[in-house]
Amino acid sequence: MRSATPWSDVFSFLLEATGETLYMVGVSTVIATVLGVPVGVWLQLTAKGGLRPNTAVHRILSFVTDLGRSMPFIVLLVALTSVTRLIVGGSIGSTAVIVPLAVGAIPFVGRLVQNILSEVHVTVVEAAITTGASTLRIVRSVLIRESLPALINAIGVTVIALIGYSAMAGVIGGGGLGDLAIREGYQRFNDRILWSTVAWLAVLTTVIQLGFTRAARASDRRRHASV
Amino acid sequence: MITVENLTKSFQGVSALNGVTLDVEAGTVLGVVGPSGAGKSTLARCVALLERPDSGAIRVDGTDITSLDGSALRAARRQIGVVPQGDSLLRQRTAAGNIALPLESAGIPGPQRRTRVGELLDLVGLTDKAASYPDQLSGGQRQRIAVARALAANPSVLLADEPTSALDPETTGSVLTVLDRARAELGVTVLVVTHDMGVVRKICDDVAVLEQGRVVEHGKVLDLVNDVASRTSSALLPAVDLNPINESSYDRVADVVLVGFAAVGALLPEAAHRFGVELNIVGGGLTRLGETPVARFRLGLNGERSDSALEWIGEAGGSVQRSLKGPQGVAA
Ligand SMILES: Nc1ncnc2c1ncn2[C@@H]1O[C@H](COP(=O)(O)OP(=O)(O)OP(=O)(O)O)[C@@H](O)[C@H]1O
Ligand SMILES: [Mg+2]
């Protein structure tokens, strides 16, 4: 039996993998938010009872969104190889993982956002309509601002989900914490690495979740913050 | 000024408005009343440009607003202040921020916006609540902020759908006071939908009764109370027949409506004196419509010249509605 990996090496493994995970998840979350929120807004605008109801557009958009959401991430990872190469100029490594992560998360964010926006009460929206506000203003000042706490929480949920998905990044050499746990820990029977990674992931996700919950609460002006 | 002509609207074949015609003179308050499902909200929503009527016209200050689109529609909406039914404030904005919304929509710059918001907070008596969020306000305060918001962009008309429905009597009073001030101080034309005749009693100049999508009664409140057959009079005037009286002890029994200080105060004693009759109030009572005292009394008269006394009351401005005993229609 080999002697256990020294803690100093475990730490440097964890440090590097954490950097990779945060990079992959961070960038893909930003992209998924920037593109997913408009998708959610568009879904809600075109929905029945929305500001710009349009059944045909809504159906198509819903279909594409749900298709994207039902795609297993591992399939997306492999299927998007050529697209990834086109965008980032290569198909392996952390940067290459960002493409499928972001693509997978856009419909996820879109649906979450639509559900949240649909919760804004119709009287509140109509009151804004009667002030002569443009659709853009209503989206910004009413739909999004009124739901901001819930939206921030939804982004938090997305980050946690993407950390999970990114564990499969190893398939295309993306590295990260999941990859560390599987390849260095599980496959090489290195319990110290496996369990330190698991413990660190638990800490990391908890801290991230807490951060988003705090931010959501800070943005909430309602007395009973229940999001 | 609001003119509604022959408005119709149906939902999936069910008719909600069935040829509604009414008008609200500039600077007056019209109360729209009627049973649940009569089409009151539908009417208000059509005038608020939230619902498009199937046919008919709605004119605000002479301009037909029913077929506008795009920026013309948004501009028209700014001319029409709306207090929607139910909670309608942005919960993530302060009271001041809520009032500012129409001003932002109108593209009014920050400093002017703040001045105007200050004026409106003053109008509704909530200057000290400027920085409070809706959840920190009472129902009545929220409703007053909603009125202030509706008035922010200087609309010429104000619509309110059940502005007091969820409020207790005292709070209702504070909201009605604000609506009344809007009319008195800003000269706004007000259309208020309500199921509460108390609202009509306190602030309405005119009333329109809606039933099954039709206007079944429309006119000045003070005129309608003189008409015994009107729904308005039976809803607003004190009941006369609470205590059964012994009619045989009177030569004449008649119901009379008196409007205004002079009539209520002086007419009956004067009549008794002039015609030398005994004149007793045997039923009914006194109420107030806006600032005007209004009475409906059941009178019992004894004396030879009882008919003449009743006739004189009618001529002097009272309205003798029916003679329950004696020659029918003698003075009516
Ligand atoms: N969006 C809608 N879709 C279908 N039917 C509607 C809609 N809005 C109103 N109606 C119908 O139109 C009729 C009039 O409704 P409206 O809300 O105008 O009544 P109301 O006089 O305001 O009643 P209430 O006093 O209960 O508020 C009712 O029969 C109602 O069911
Ligand atoms: Mg209604």
UniProtKB/TrEMBL annotation, chain A:
Q: Which PROSITE patterns match?
A: ABC_TM1
Localization: Cell membrane
Q: Which Gene3D superfamilies match?
A: MetI-like (1.10.3720.10)
Q: Does the keyword Transport apply?
A: yes
The cellular component terms of Gene Ontology attached to this UniProt record, alphabetical and capped at eight, are: plasma membrane
All copies of domain ABC transmembrane type-1, residue ranges: 18-216
Please name the InterPro entries in this protein's record.
Answer: AA_ABC_Transporter_Permease (IPR051322), MetI-like (IPR000515), MetI-like_sf (IPR035906)
State which residue ranges cross the membrane: 22-45, 57-80, 86-109, 150-173, 193-213
Query: Which keywords label this protein?
Result: Cell membrane, Membrane, Transmembrane, Transmembrane helix, Transport
Please name the GO terms of the biological process aspect recorded for this protein, alphabetically: D-methionine transmembrane transport
Main localization (coarse): membrane
Domain of life of the organism in this record? Answer: Bacteria
Membrane topology qualifier: Multi-pass membrane protein
Which family does the similarity line name? Belongs to the binding-protein-dependent transport system permease family.
Q: What is this protein called?
A: D-methionine transport system permease protein
Q: Which organism is it from?
A: Lentzea waywayandensis
TrEMBL record, chain B:
Task: Give start and end of each ABC transporter domain.
Answer: 2-237
Query: Which keywords does the record carry?
Result: Amino-acid transport, ATP-binding, Cell membrane, Membrane, Nucleotide-binding, Translocase, Transport
* Record-level Gene Ontology MF annotations: ATP binding; ATP hydrolysis activity
Keyword Metal-binding in record: no
GO terms for biological process, alphabetical:
amino acid transport
UniProt keyword Transport, yes or no? yes
Q: This chain belongs to which protein, by name?
A: D-methionine transport system ATP-binding protein
